Amino acid sequence: MDTEIEAILVTFIRENCLPQKVQMTLGKEDNLFDTGTIDSAGLIHFIGFIEDRFNIVIPDEDLIPEKFTTIASITAYVRARIHESAIESLR
Amino acid sequence: METLYKCVIWDLDNTLWNGICLEGRVEPRDEVRRTLEVLRDRGVLHSIASRGDEAVARQTLESYDLRKYFVEPKINWLPKNTNILDIARTLNISLDAVAFVDDDPFEREQISYMLPAVRVIEAGEAAALPDLDGFNPGVLTAEARTRTRLYEEEQGRQSAAASYTSREDFLLSCRMQLDLRPATAGDAPRVMELMQRTHQMNSTGLLLSESALLGIIRDSEEGPHLYVAELSDRFGWCGIIGVFLAEVDGPQWQVALFAMSCRVMGRGIERAIISELVDRATARGCRHFRALYHATERNRMMRTMFQMSGFRQQGMRDNGSTFFELDFTQKPTRPSWVSVI
Q1: Which residue of B has its CA nearest to A46?
Q2: What is residue B316's predicted lDDT score, i.e. its pLDDT?
Q3: A61 with B163: Cβ contact below 8 A
Q4: CA atoms within 13 A on the CB side of B199
Q5: Interatomic CA distance for residues B240 and B243, integer angstroms
Q6: Strand partners, B178
Q7: Whole-angstrom Cα distance, residue B128 to residue B119?
Q8: pLDDT by residue (tens digit) across B49-73?
Q9: Are residues B127 and B147 located together in one domain of the fold?
């Protein structure tokens, strides 16, 4: 499941945040902010995409560096939220 | 607050000029050219949403020296609502700051129906546009007068970005220089303009009268500190792009306003600014660094910026305002591509 989530996130970043036509390296532990890949405006756009794509809600309190700095941390977060939503919907 | 229009989107045939350019000779309307100039000098951008053949229309625009007034013209056969939405997104302007001028009642009705936030104006009213509510910002700044050129420089940056192999390489090559300095009396008009015009990257929506502003600038040693940020890069001068008001009470600093122009979003400038503000405050004995935040429909980005920069929310008041406090162990890192002077 992680590889699938990760692939979706990486595709979005490639299409929206990185120069087109060039195959750029994007390591899953790279800091998206320190590398200039996204900034505050880009993050808002990215969050909207994640919410729609995975049908989850991301509360404002969760928008913190531990969760949204790298592809790896965002992948882990999205997986956990999908899991929580699934449990909530069973209740 | 009264809406200020940031972009006027024009139809061409029988609106910008009399006649239909695909059918032969057209005659530009002098009163429209005057409107284009007056509004451009007030910092309003002009664009085009027109059905027709792009090559022919462009040639007509060039031949009457009209092309220079417009950014992001859309001349094609797509529905105008699609084109207007596209222009607004590219310019990073919300639809309620967009006006659309067309002679055709069908097109006007279609836009009113599809994009109700857009102000729709009949072509006959073009001459009176500068006198209508929402088209006069009241203050005129150097940034406003050159906004069309600034926007074109921004297009240069965007197309330059395509040729680099890493985003950071590109940003470094732009040689961005940020000058964060105390505001002076001469900055007051631009400060007021930023307070009125910025919505997304605006922490509290604080508005001050000119006299209040001048008072703060005059008493900045004892009272709150007002800073402005001026940005330039290898493409040109971007002008004053941000304003920040910090109230100081001994070791406690509280940012009562953080406002940054949407034109320079996407380059991590806000992180450079917040980290520089924190460093300066620390150097002056600050031990608690807070930022006030008043949530609106449009400034979620501001909350994200604080949280992602190591701030934690500390409480919520009934009116929706709250404050964030910096955890100094998580101080934001400064982007490598912005040099601060």
Answers
A1: B301
A2: 75
A3: no
A4: 14
A5: 8
A6: B231, B340
A7: 15
A8: 998 888 889 999 999 999 999 999 9
A9: no
Give the end of a domain, one of B73, B97, B131: B131
Nearest to B308 among A19, A37, A68 (CB): A68
pLDDT of residue A2: 82
B223 phi/psi in degrees, rounded to 5: -90, -160
Q: Do B313 and A61 lie within an 8 Å CB cutoff?
A: yes
Cα–Cα distance between B45 and B90 in angstroms, integer?
A: 12
The answer, yes or no, to whether residue B160 has pLDDT greater than 70, is: no
Q: How many domains does chain B have?
A: 2
Out of A18, A21, A68, closest to residue B167 by CB? A18
B273-295 pLDDT, tens digit per residue, is: 999 999 999 999 999 999 999 99
pLDDT tens-digit profile, chain A (91 residues): 788 999 999 988 887 777 654 556 678 899 999 988 888 888 988 999 999 999 999 999 999 999 999 999 999 999 999 999 888 888 7
- B72 located within any domain: yes
Residue where a domain terminates, one of B74, B101, B131: B131
State whether CATH 1.10.1200.10 applies to domain A2-90: yes
